[in-house]
Design goal:
By secondary structure, this protein is an alpha/beta fold. 39% of the residues lie in helices and 18% in strands. The protein contains 9 helices and 11 strands. An 8-stranded parallel barrel has the order 1-2-4-5-6-7-8-11, surrounded by 6 helices. Strands 9-10 form a two-stranded antiparallel sheet. The N and C termini lie close together (9 Å).
Length: 293
């Protein structure tokens, strides 16, 4: 049955070590950790062995699995080879971190592709496929899997796009990170369609909840990581208090063979006024998920 991880996106007020302690205290099984400079609840992109050892030792002490790392590189489809190679190099370093921490997954953005971007000759798509195959080879050597998220401003904004890319990459160490909330607020597939389309390559799942604003005029975002406040068409909610049918989603993915991790992508980092501290909201979210099964 499912295991639940806390995501350090939800703990901006905590250090990574404090977040791990919190995840343990509220009964979670693991942690997904942001890899980004200048974020209190993340590890830096140039992380020392001493820092990694501190995190690894703390997790082992708490019997908590570090299941995934979340870097913010996205330009794997860039037409500038210098930019693309730099992204690959940074991701290679993250693969080494994941291997050292015994993390099984690394969240990946499916390139950088904002609304209105075009790819008439398919070069960006080809670059993304090439980078993922190359990095997939490296990840496989380290017993790590790259999971490409259903995410706005990428080339995998929809389930249809995600499975098409995954099949094109055709690599055992490269799969899909299923995020129904992202599909929902960007106006993509409902969960029945999304699961049917992409489940064969789903390795990992994010869980969060939302409600559409009354004046919702559709989704727009100028940034790949998160929409600005004035761009938002939804508000973030504790899981179970929003519009997503999590009982239906979990039942359907289980029927389709998924019994892996559920990562609580509690978006307090981006929307602190929407939801309470993780000690309250993430705990309540986990309790709700467990009540389903």
């Amino acid at each position: 049955m499912y295991q639940i991880a806390g995501h350090t996106m939800g703990t901006p007020e905590y250090t990574v070590l404090e977040a791990l302690q919190l995840f343990h205290d509220i009964g979670l099984n693991g942690a997904e950790i942001v890899v980004q400079d200048d974020y209190r609840s993340g590890i830096p992109t140039q992380c020392s062995k001493e820092q990694l050892d501190e995190i690894k030792d703390k997790a082992e002490q708490l019997n908590l699995r570090i299941i995934a790392l979340t870097p913010y590189n996205s330009r794997f489809n860039d037409l500038d080879e210098t930019v693309r190679r730099k992204e690959e190099e940074e991701l290679s370093r993250c693969i080494e971190y994941a291997s050292y921490l015994r993390a099984e997954y690394i969240r990946i953005y499916g390139g950088n592709f904002a609304a209105g971007d075009t790819d008439p000759d398919g070069k960006k798509w080809k670059n993304l496929v090439a980078s993922m195959r190359k990095l997939g080879d490296e990840a496989q050597k380290h017993n790590v899997k790259l999971v490409i998220e259903n995410h706005f401003n990428t080339m995998t904004v929809s389930a249809k796009d995600s499975i098409a890319l995954s099949r094109k990459i055709h690599h055992p160490a490269v799969g899909i990170l299923y995020d129904q909330a992202n599909l929902t607020f960007t106006g993509q597939e409902d969960y029945q369609t999304a699961i049917r389309l992409q489940m064969e390559k789903v390795y990992y799942m994010h869980v969060k909840d939302l409600r559409f604003k009354e004046n919702n005029t559709g989704f727009v975002s100028s940034d790949v990581s998160h929409p600005k406040e004035e761009e938002r068409n939804v508000v973030t909610r504790i899981v179970g208090e929003g519009e997503l049918d999590w009982p239906g989603i979990l039942n359907m993915v289980r029927e389709n063979g998924y019994d892996g991790w559920l990562s609580l992508e509690y978006e307090r980092r981006w929307h602190p006024n929407d939801i309470p501290d993780a000690s309250i909201g993430m705990k309540q979210s986990a309790e709700y998920l467990r009540s389903i099964w």
